[in-house]
Design brief:
- The chain has 110 residues and is an alpha+beta fold.
- The protein has a two-stranded antiparallel sheet.
- The longest helix is centred in the last third of the chain and has 16 residues.
């Protein structure tokens, strides 16, 4: 993978917590210090603006590319602010959960 380029991780099956009988496959990815992981529910790409246009995966990628190197709290706050600005006065129709994690060196803030 190219450094500083968002990489979409895909998974199939039911979301976590829906079914106690669901089996999940394990995947691994080589991460490096400075990498960021951004997990989100479908409420993020499905979020619509006042005209009914969804935020979509392209806007997510564009935002992440434009914010490479930011500290996790700043990246998270800026993403939430960006989403609120995009949404405008339109009410959300789905829940939205975002989790951003940073990969750092031992003892160093991420």
């Amino acid at each position: 993978r190219e450094r500083n380029e968002p990489t979409a991780l895909s998974a199939r099956g039911f979301p976590l917590g829906i079914s106690g009988d669901e089996r999940y496959r394990e995947k691994s990815l080589q991460l490096q210090a400075g990498d960021r992981l951004c997990f989100f529910t479908d409420g993020l790409p499905d979020l619509c603006d006042e005209m009914g246009e969804s935020f979509g995966s392209q806007r997510i990628g564009h935002f992440l590319r434009g914010n490479v190197g930011k500290a996790v709290p700043d990246l998270t706050a800026d993403l939430v602010s960006h989403l609120r600005q995009f949404q405008g006065a339109r009410k959300a129709t789905d829940d939205l959960t975002i989790l951003v994690a940073g990969i750092g060196q031992a003892g160093a803030p991420s």
